[in-house]
Amino acid sequence: GNQTIVYVKGSPEAVSKRCIAMSLPPNFEAKARQSARDGIYQLAMASSKFSSNKPISDITREDIEKDLTFSGFINYQNSMKDDTPAVIRELRDGGISCAMITGDNVLTGIYIAKKAGLIDPSKPVIIANRICDHSIEWVNASDDRSENPPDISSLRDFSRDTSLSMTGEVWNYLLKCDPIAALEYAKYTQVFGRTTPDDKVSIVSTFVEVGNITLMCGDGGNDCGALKAAHIGIALSDAEASVVAPFTSLDKSIASVTDVLKE
User: Fold this and answer.
1) What is the spatial distance between Cα 76 and Cα 203, in angstroms, rounded to a whole number?
2) How distant, in Å, are the alpha carbons of 1, 141, 145, 196, 229 from that of 36?
3) Mean pLDDT of 173-181
4) Residue 42 neighbours by CB under 8 Å, 6+ apart
């Protein structure tokens, strides 16, 4: 049949799993994590030559996205709006707990959270990073060294000196295997990273179900479910999010959060 060149983009973690191992540089994971640690949004690119006699309607993603050759990274950065830190400070001064739920790498989320004032830059950050052999891997955000899991019974004291972050993978594992622990950790988690749209819904819904008045703001299609699940949803765009959210920010700024709360 005809030969086609296939190009694939995605997170470094997802793309690397679909690549021929020999095509990946030996420092692939280290480079990807350091870029995320530096606040860089990163896409991995890969390609392959694809040929098939199947009708195009019968070809699946699994047929195409395999045995890829790694091509490189695309790095970019989004500038945070100038008023964000002041808004976060006002919310926290008002006794409102704030957290970030992002589909981006948890390390990128931590970088932005420090800039925004969600995380105290002077505090160490540990991450509930992934599930290995049915247990949670805890690592230090600064260098990926292994950390002991925080004691659930003393999380309040723990959070005074250390910030906690979590990936969507760990959240789902906890929600399934130990929902009580999931809720306790969630109370003190300041960044949820690599979350899917369904993860965002379950995180918001969990806080709603236990009686917390919950506000969600977001600007993309991936946020629509969580915007609907929260007591208050504020869309920061005119796209899909604005269709489902009760409120839409006219200036696309999280300053609208304080405006709504004051009303």
Assistant:
1) 28
2) 41, 10, 16, 18, 29
3) 95
4) 11, 12, 32, 35, 36, 73, 74, 75, 105, 108
Residues 191-200 have pLDDT tens digits of: 999 999 999 9
Look at the block and give the residue holding tokens 């890969």. Answer: 46
Rounded to an integer, the average pLDDT of 115-122 is 96
